[in-house]
Amino acid sequence: MISSNLPALQIVIPLLSAPICVILRDRRIVWAFAQLITLFAFGCAVALTVQVLQTGPISYEIGNWQAPWGIEYRIDLLNAFMLIIVSAIGAITMPYARVSVAKEIPQERIYLFYTMYLLSMTGLLGIAITGDAFNLFVFLEISALSSYVLISLGEDRRALTAAYRYLVMGTLGATFYIIGVGLMYMMTGTLNMADLVGRLPGVAHTTTILAALAFITCGVSLKLALFPLHLWLPNAYAFAPSVVTVFLAATATKVSVYVLLRVFFTIFGGVDLFIDSHLADILMALALVGMFTMSAVAIYQKNLKRMLAFSSVAQIGYMVLGISFVSVLGLTGTIIHLFNHALMKGALFMALGCIVFRTGSVDIKDMAGMGRRMPVTMAAFVVAGLSMIGVPLTVGFVSKWYLVLAALEQDAWWIALLVLLSSLLAVVYIWRVIEVAYFRPVPEGAPPIKEAPLSMLLPMWLLTGGAVFFGVHSTLTVDIARAAATFLLGDRQ
Amino acid sequence: MEFPGHFNYWIVIVMMMAGFYVVISQGNLVKKVVGLNIFQVSVFVFYISMGKVDGGTAPIIHPDWTTYTNPVPSVLILTAIVVGVATTALALALVVRIRRAFGTIEDDEIEAQEEAQS
Fold this sequence. Notes:
The complex is a heterodimer of chains A (about 500) and B (about 120).
Chain A: H1 6-24, H2 27-55, E1 58-61, E2 72-75, H3 77-104, H4 110-129, H5 133-152, H6 158-188, H7 193-203, H8 207-224, H9 233-239, H10 242-267, H11 273-276, H12 279-299, H13 304-324, H14 328-359, H15 370-373, H16 375-389, H17 395-409, H18 413-439, H19 454-472, H20 475-489
Antiparallel strand pairs in A: 1-2
Helix pairs in contact in A: 1-2, 1-4, 2-3, 2-4, 3-4, 3-10, 3-14, 3-19, 4-5, 4-10, 5-6, 5-10, 6-8, 6-9, 8-10, 9-10, 9-13, 10-13, 10-14, 12-13, 12-18, 13-14, 13-18, 14-16, 14-17, 14-19, 14-20, 16-18, 16-19, 17-18, 17-19
Chain B: H1 2-5, H2 7-25, H3 29-51, H4 71-102, H5 107-117
């Protein structure tokens, strides 16, 4: 009974527990409750993945309304993997959140933080699980609206303007998406993704469908902050509370990349519009430009959270690059990087959150001697930073390896070269921090600071450890990513 | 008959572009929200126009009628309207907070203050 209704529980439990947080009020109880719910969501995602691995894709009809008329949740290996990423990060961030949130968010607003956190997670899980194009829009907006609120909870007043700008851009993006869905509905009369696959080939030659693809790509690209549509992201990440940055950086843009994968290779899987319209070439060009310019901009940032935010935009370039190859190797690179980037960016932002917790600053000039003042935190930053660069034995290497292989497979050696060159830029911006933290003396008269509390260090090292573990034992995740990529491409390979 | 037949869609495009232009060109944060609303409403009109069937009536089963308008787009738009209202409310709430924090709701003045701060 429960196991057959897992897909619904995955969404309904976090969704309903969000308002319960408002009733509970007390910040300790709300935290414990939210932790419980996130763990439940994670367990649910794992159980669903096991089911998918055993029996193949699961289809679940919400309220027993038969698909394609009712809303269908359809879980294959790709979204099961996404569910695991989102819920795992959601659950790991929670123990970290308790002290960090108590420090950075005013007492009377803490319960609202957890409410919004759960809603945001619900939205992201919903995007991943749903098999209905319009339902996806609703979840997109649930996650987006709650993340605007989460960002605006930042201490700095610039968090408010960052949230406002994100709201304007995010709403434009989501509206573009429904215009695209509307155009598809006009031509096919269906919103169910699986049903769209069968019906699109009959009308694929029309300009209406071409316009639909253009609107959806443009809208989702705004959401995933593809260069040059990334303008909302740096300030939003820089001024949001640390926990929010950790959660959003590790999950939100990844889920949007998943939407792109779903649209290009499932919904438009039966037609070659993606290739014929040169969309793949355009995406490749944008991805490459984004990888370089954004890494270069990151080097000049004084605010380290902002620096990592620009690095995130560059990393999204890698994911989109993988999509633009339209090959099993390329998609494997993209899917594996979704997971790997969540691990390392989560760990890096957690390290900065620990530093903010003790010093209240993430400015590069305040990092002098941090390697001695907060050794455990900085060690995690270094390990995760090395992974960001793509050093062997870390997850960053695995992702880049597959992207390079995908490029070489198509004889695009210059792209392989560009991937390696852009990694050098990552060396510069990560090294900059290491240099200041380890080779500059602690400024005189600086107040002694303690290491961050254990409840923050443990989640951080869990992610950092994951970045090394899955770098060494890469077959675990690569197998899933490759199977998902093969499934997505179907007979197109 | 192409043009008059597609009258609704022309209106949709005009509204969409007008709204989009307001969002981009206006420096006042409240005016931007108004633009965003016009932009969203154009999509509502688009969906509802798309569901209209020539000579169709409201989708209530009745022996006198055989053609019905497609109710699905209208229902979808009910959802989208709710989302739109929530977005507008949140945007305006943020504008109130921005006004309290910066003392202005003009984009360029806020930007100048932000630059001075960093």
